[in-house]
Design brief:
By secondary structure, the chain is mainly alpha-helical. About 75% of the residues lie in helices and about 0% in strands. The protein has 4 helices and no strands.
Length: about 90
């Protein structure tokens, strides 16, 4: 057996012998507070706005990094082909 097969066998033996932990209980009053706050929040647009504005810089950095890395790795032929695809109109 290879090293990977041995590791998988060890992991499967450990998984079979593992003792399941009891489910964690919710703290007292948490469910009531969660339901009450959900009912009290009638306008969820502010929450979505906050999440989207927080995600915007992360998405921008990820997009810029992927474009920068892909532009460095692109050969001249692939770059020319990409330019043809970009400049070709997509009308039926």
């Amino acid at each position: 057996m290879t090293n990977i097969d041995q590791r998988l066998e060890q992991l499967s033996v450990r998984a079979r012998n593992a003792v399941a932990s009891p489910p964690a209980e919710v703290p007292f009053g948490f469910a009531i507070r969660a339901i009450a706050s959900a009912r009290a929040a009638t306008d969820t647009s502010a929450l979505w706005t906050r999440f989207s504005l927080a995600a915007l810089p992360v998405a921008s950095v990820a997009t810029a990094a992927s474009l920068w890395l892909s532009a460095r790795a692109m050969s001249a032929d692939a770059h020319d082909l990409a330019q043809v695809f970009i400049q070709t109109p997509l009308f039926p």
